[in-house]
Inverse folding.
């Protein structure tokens, strides 16, 4: 596999400059993954390999921009549906840490995105994705029975019924590398991402809907700098292509749903239980091999600027930064809320209201909803609609909002400062009827 290569420092700097200047399309996110393999106790008799799976460019889902190896692999070649890099442990350089640095653009391709930007594949042979096979036992009598129960008037309604059934039916339980399969998941009503995916795929195939598993990694929140192996599902929808669904994360405290997925997925393979990283330490009892993976989101400088410009009311700069961030994280309630206020400051009230309504939709708990209510107070104060501003302020106070001193200095509320009812509220005294 050949990838463009140059000095990582200058390559990343150039990408960041482009990233800041031009908002990315199709919800793209620019990230760098750094994988480090530490190998200890190698001797002249050590045999075997270190194997690391390498992500590939997949149209509409991810684009590999650059891969750097500090020690060149012995081979990098295609194996079934994935690419594997291999290092022979007998090489003297392996006494160093193996470092792989991959820079890529990742994109959402969920049902919502597919309807806007479809990626159909002409002449695709679908029979392999409708088969009964190990772990995807579509012909199992219980799978068949449940598929009939979930049948809807259309394939899309059937697919949504299947997705929601898997989310509601299974309870999350980690089984690691146990070989369990869909029929056992259906019967025992529990599983991890593998079982969630296998059950959805098997029910889809039993309903005549082509489906396959994806093995990859998910980016955790950037402040934790973690990444985890994960399985999710792709369903082939005619005229739209292979569309991603994640029933596992839809069953957790995330914004994932039937239509929407967060932009945090790195694709590696369509094989089940393939190892993203492996080695031959078992053949060499003294050998110690460890694997570490970190990642960087290059939107971080843009995010810092967005908060700075917002707080300083540099509205045009704030909006440019927020536009870029929302293209990457369209379901982030706080970004929508901030952009709504920025637009209201510029008197673009209709567009501002749309952002604030989406902020309500994407907020997930009482604290977040309270912040959005306060954003509506600012919005109506900027519109000089004092009655509605005070009404939303009352709702925020009922949910526990109590930052009264801050409100008296918030310039977005300047039209309310001399209002007697507002003054009563900001010192915590209820307004008399």
């Amino acid at each position: 596999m050949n990838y463009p290569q140059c000095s990582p420092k200058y390559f990343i700097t150039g990408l960041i400059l482009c990233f800041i200047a031009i908002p990315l399309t199709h919800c793209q996110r620019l990230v760098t993954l750094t994988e480090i393999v530490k190998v200890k106790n190698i001797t002249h008799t050590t045999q075997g390999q270190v194997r690391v799976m390498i992500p590939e460019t997949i149209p509409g889902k991810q684009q590999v921009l650059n891969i750097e190896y500090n020690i060149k692999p012995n081979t990098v070649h295609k194996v079934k549906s994935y690419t594997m890099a291999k290092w022979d442990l007998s090489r003297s350089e392996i006494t160093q840490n193996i470092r792989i640095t991959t820079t890529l653009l990742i994109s959402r391709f969920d049902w919502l995105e597919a309807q806007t930007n479809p990626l159909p594949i002409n002449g695709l042979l679908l029979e392999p994705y409708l088969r009964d096979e190990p772990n995807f036992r579509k012909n199992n009598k219980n799978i068949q029975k449940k598929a009939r129960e979930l049948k809807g008037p259309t394939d899309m309604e059937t697919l949504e019924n299947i997705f929601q059934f898997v989310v509601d039916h299974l309870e999350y339980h980690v089984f690691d590398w146990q070989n369990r399969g869909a029929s056992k998941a259906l019967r025992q009503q529990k599983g991890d991402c593998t079982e969630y995916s296998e059950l959805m795929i098997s029910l889809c195939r039993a309903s005549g809907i082509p489906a396959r598993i994806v093995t990859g990694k998910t980016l955790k929140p950037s402040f934790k700098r973690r990444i985890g192996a994960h399985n999710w599902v792709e369903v082939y929808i005619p005229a739209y292509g292979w569309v991603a669904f994640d029933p596992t994360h839809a069953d957790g405290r995330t914004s994932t749903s039937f239509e929407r997925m967060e932009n945090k997925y790195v694709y590696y393979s369509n094989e089940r239980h393939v190892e993203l990283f492996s080695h031959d330490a078992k053949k060499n009892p003294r050998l110690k091999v460890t694997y570490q993976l970190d990642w960087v989101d290059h939107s971080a400088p843009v995010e810092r600027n967005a908060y700075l410009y917002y707080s300083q009311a540099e509205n045009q700069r704030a909006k440019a930064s927020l536009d870029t961030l929302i293209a990457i994280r369209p379901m982030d309630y706080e970004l929508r809320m901030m952009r709504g206020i920025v637009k209201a400051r510029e008197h673009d009230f209709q567009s501002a209201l749309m952002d604030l309504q989406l902020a309500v939709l994407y907020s997930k708990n009482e604290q977040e909803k309270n912040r959005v209510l306060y954003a509506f107070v600012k919005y109506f104060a900027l519109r000089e609609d004092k009655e509605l501003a005070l009404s939303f302020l009352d709702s925020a106070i009922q949910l526990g909002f109590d930052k009264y001193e801050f409100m008296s200095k918030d310039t977005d509320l300047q039209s309310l400062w001399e209002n007697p009812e507002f003054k009563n509220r900001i010192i915590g005294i209820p307004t008399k009827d």
Remarks:
- The CA atoms of residues 130 and 205 lie 5 Å apart.
